[in-house]
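Morning F.,

Quick status update on the modeling queue. The single chain you submitted on Monday has been processed. Sequence for confirmation:
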Amino acid sequence: MRYRIFWMPLLLLLLIFTLTSVAIAGFRELFEKEFLTEPWAGPKVEKDVCIECHTSDIMKPRFRVIVDEWKMSWHSQNNVSCHDCHGGDPKDAAMSMSPQRGFAGTPKYADVPEFCGKCHIGILKNYLESGHGKTLKATRKGPNCVTCHGSHNIQKASIDIISEQQCSKCHSYERAKIMKQALFLIEKKIGDIEGDIKRLRAGGVFTEEEEKTLFSTHAEFRTLFHTVDVALVKDRTDEFTNKLNLIEKNIEATFNELGFRKIFSTFFMLVFAGMGVVVFLLSKTYRD
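Structure tokens below.
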């Protein structure tokens, strides 16, 4: 009986620790399911007649390859499918290309910016006011979105799009090079922050606020690219650097707090382990 009295507090503490760990693990799983993997474009259509038709043998090879390219794209990774851009009904083969269901088909070359701008609203505004946009509207031959980003195999935008090979197709690379230099440090800082956020998420930390702030800052930053205004980009580089510095400061504080908690937890466990040893020795002495 005396032996049970000595061990009951330890068993109770172990039970509390185990139940708390299970609760945290369950909440983390629920959080990731609800927020971190939620697609941008809404629920995915399980049976997409656009994809079924374009991958069938009745389709010419140049149309079948579209699906292969899309599957490797940033759009596909975020569940942006055919109908999100081209309209139509992906659930009904008879209405999949019906104007009544919003089918827009393939836009004309000069209309591509407005086609993409249905979602990329801020980018469209800056593009239309840029030298690129004004040239397209005046001559209908200037660069549009597809010129730099491609059409179906669209990848996550990065500073690498600005390259001598790409820009020199139409003009000198010198001005683009100056703009790329101004943006280089910000791109690196964004990449570092994304890595830190992944580490925090892996550790079960809520990063929703940091992710939202980084997303909006990154989106605004990429919108700035499309002005193709070297002076403006250089002027606003410090502004974006300061915004990213604030996010980094919050993340660093979180890492410091996690480090303190880890040390405190280790100390706490060592104390209880020591208490367990003492209780065991006392109980043994008492029995003897």
